[in-house]
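ingest -> validate -> predict -> emit
validate: passed (alphabet ok, no gaps, 313 aa)
predict: started
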Amino acid sequence: MKSEFLLYAAPLQGYTELAWREAHRRTIGGVDVYGAPFVRWEKDGLRNKDRREMDPAANHVERLVPQVLVAEPEEFRRLVSVLDGWGYREVEVNMGCPFPVLVRKGKGAGLLPCPDRVWALLEAMRDFPDIGFSVKMRLGAERPNEWEALLPLFNGSVVRRLTVHPRVGRQQYRGEVDRDQFAAFYERCTKPLVYNGDLRSLAQAQEVLRAYPRLAGLMLGRGLLARPTLALEIRRGKEATEEELIAYTALWHRQWVAACSERIEGGEAQLLQKLRTMWDYLLPDLPKRQRKVILKANRLEAYLAGVREALGQ
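emit:
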């Protein structure tokens, strides 16, 4: 694996938050760069949740990249100024979030049909010469070739890295990734390029790397949530055994639950809601009976007992 090649943990709203990142870093690792789910400006400032999540004193991963979700340059400048003041030297701009309520506001994938607005944001990056900017994007909002009007802008900008998920926004996470369009993007892109999308196994990651040998990295999202050892497996070039996967997952889960318990202030019901959410993806091959016990638990004690049974603890 090339020395400049990096593995990224995708910023997934509601999942890869501070507690998840810290627990994963301490117990499993394999990730070079952790992405923090997007921060955004609401009314007169950042949400309190975003401030807690991005507090530098609480984040201990070696390389953490906050992501901003913006529609206009002034909004971008306000957000980046706050992150700059906290000492962050890398910021990623989200141009790929597919959720309709945000797309309708011209944010995330809603930016992609508007080259003039994208260019305005790229020019605003020049106001922060001490910060390295990256962009996470999709091929387009509605059409898979919308990127063709944008790539010359990115190639001529101060952006240091592009991460591309080869779907369009209207697909959200459904259907197949468009590898033909990604290949065309790959050939014409002059910036370091990271692939993101449907990487759920070591074999899939290796196949992508064979197809696109000049990639600067892979970004792991839902695949890493499902299989917490995935980055470590890619790093080592060897798949974890079932016993290793379960042992690592159990160790991570204990620390993650402890971290969530410290940070969630709404009592046991709110804590359980957060814990159950992770099982949207975690260990998809778990028998349905065991998963049902975990998801139906209405007390923390019952939830933890269900997890111990599922993980053979």
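The beta strands are 6-9, 33-39, 41-42, 45-46, 64-68, 90-95, 132-140, 161-168, 193-196, 217-220.
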